[in-house]
Write a structure and sequence with these properties.
- A hairpin with a 2-residue loop joins strand 1 and strand 2 (60-66).
- The two termini are 40 Å apart.
- The strands form two sheets. The protein has a three-stranded antiparallel beta sheet. Strands 4-5 form a two-stranded antiparallel sheet.
- Helix 1 runs parallel beside helix 8, helix 7 packs parallel to helix 10 and helix 16 (365-390) packs antiparallel against helix 17.
- The chain has 457 residues and is mainly α.
- The radius of gyration is 22 Å and the shape is globular.
- It is built from 18 helices and five strands.
Length: 457
């Protein structure tokens, strides 16, 4: 531990991410993370090779889901969600673990998630393994969570090993209680966050001056850009960071134009194709009164009105968005100590300012402006998606939005803020920041345990 200050960021990620992530996955009762029953249904379908809708019932795209899976909420005990005074009965979980693994009969259910199947590959792998071992359906939850965590840690470790600078900044965002909790659930956001981190790590490396990049390096960038755009198109603006790659990294101007066009196409085309497929399915709106097409027209016709919506929502919900960025766990009903919501953002900003170094690819006003513009566009894209999908046409506020949707953009914004003469964060300040992250995770785990298994409130 005397040399711990010099450990690579990827080692710290595994040292903290594995035990706390596994603990989050096992301590949180099944179906007590946001929309987990929907994610479980979709992961189960993908594990069987069903990548989209199987049938249409009453005009609604559907998949075939085992009735034993659909009955899981009632058997585990209803009424826990958003009722923090109620507790989980461990006996119910034990009885589910002893239940028969029968998967028949099945019933058609509306397509539980409109995300592309790519976002469910890790969870589906875990579910598929549990099925192969003949485990009951409640075990699918735990297996899918652990597989999702493994994929998140692997991709984030790749990002940390690839990045030439700003590694501590990226590490602290990856170790946020909210980020790691989602990675330890069945949420599709885990894959989105991990792919965004992987893109930033590879893009930072490519944007560092050096010899021309080979086809393998550009292929990796294009592959991750395509996966990110397919997982959630709203985060495609992050791919604009490829414009920061210096001329020395290209063999010629023609190769530069080809590489930039290839990354842009890779980021846009798969996501647009999936969006077109989803639009053709014409699924029911996520809430009553929502109409994505009409909402987009309203935004185009009322840019000033939409700007007022953004500013009003920020003023009204800034504290909630900050809290749900740092961590509101469980089914959005397990709050952390209030001081943590104030202190963690300040620590992130301080680390972002101090964590620079001579190898930072964001030196110079032009590159900083590009990074800030890409991060801001990413955040704006997330807000637009939230407004379009979860709100009535012309609504005065953006409701249903959470700060965790800013996570992919935050490391880039923080990196752009580093002090011009800053060196890469090391020594005691780095250890202090990591110790703070560890304390935050320990407090989060304690709150989670007390929420579900502590004395009745």
């Amino acid at each position: 531990m005397t040399r711990a200050w010099a450990w690579p960021a990827s080692r710290w990620l595994l040292l903290l991410g594995i035990p706390f992530g596994v603990a989050f996955a096992l301590v949180t009762p099944p179906l007590q993370t946001p929309d987990e029953l929907r994610h479980l249904g979709r992961a189960f379908a993908v594990s069987e090779g069903t990548l989209a809708a199987q049938t249409v019932v009453d005009g609604e795209p559907c998949i075939e889901v085992p009735r034993s899976l659909l009955a899981l909420p009632a058997r585990l005990g209803k009424g826990l969600q958003l009722h923090s005074e109620r507790r989980q009965d461990p006996g119910r979980i034990a009885r589910e673990l002893a239940r028969s693994p029968a998967l028949e009969p099945r019933a058609p259910q509306p397509l539980p998630s409109l995300y592309s199947p790519l976002a469910y590959v890790p969870q589906a792998a875990g579910v598929g393994l549990a099925r192969a071992l003949g485990l009951p359906v409640v075990a699918y939850v735990y297996a899918g969570r652990l597989a999702n965590l493994a994929a998140f840690l692997a991709l984030t470790a790749l990002a940390l090993r690839a990045a030439p600078a700003h590694r501590t900044t990226l590490l602290l965002v990856a170790l946020l209680p909210m980020t790691l909790f989602l990675a330890s659930s069945l949420s599709a956001d885990a894959a989105t966050n991990a792919l965004a981190f992987a893109w930033l790590g590879l893009a930072f490396r490519a944007a560092t001056p050096g010899s021309p990049l080979g086809a393998r390096a550009w292929g990796a960038l294009a592959l991750v850009a395509a996966a990110l755009g397919l997982a959630k198109p709203g985060y495609v603006p992050l791919v604009a960071l490829v414009l920061a790659v210096p001329a020395s990294r290209f063999e010629s101007r023609g190769r530069r134009a080809l590489a930039l066009a290839g990354c842009a196409a890779a980021a846009l085309v798969p996501g647009l194709l999936w969006s077109a497929y989803v639009a053709r399915l014409a699924p029911e709106p996520l809430i009553d009164g929502a109409d994505p097409a009409a909402q987009l027209r309203w935004i185009a016709e009322n840019p000033g009105g939409f700007a007022a919506v953004l500013l009003g929502s920020l003023a009204d919900a800034r504290r909630l968005w900050t809290a749900t960025f740092v961590g509101v766990l469980g089914h959005a009903d397990t709050w952390l100590p209030r001081w943590l919501y104030t202190l963690y953002p300040l620590v992130l900003v301080a680390v972002g300012v101090a964590d620079g170094g001579a190898r930072s690819p964001l030196r110079g006003a032009a590159r900083r402006a590009l990074a800030l513009a890409a991060a801001a566009s990413c955040a704006l894209g997330a807000l637009v998606l939230g407004y379009v999908l979860w709100n009535e046409v012309g609504s005065r506020w953006i409701q249903g939005f959470q700060g965790r949707y800013f996570t992919p953009a935050v490391p880039l914004a923080l990196a752009a803020l580093h002090a011009p003469r800053a060196r890469e964060l090391a020594g005691a300040p780095r250890l202090a920041a990591l110790a703070f992250a560890a304390v935050a995770l320990a407090l989060s785990l304690g709150r989670l345990w007390a929420r579900y298994y502590g004395p009745p409130a």
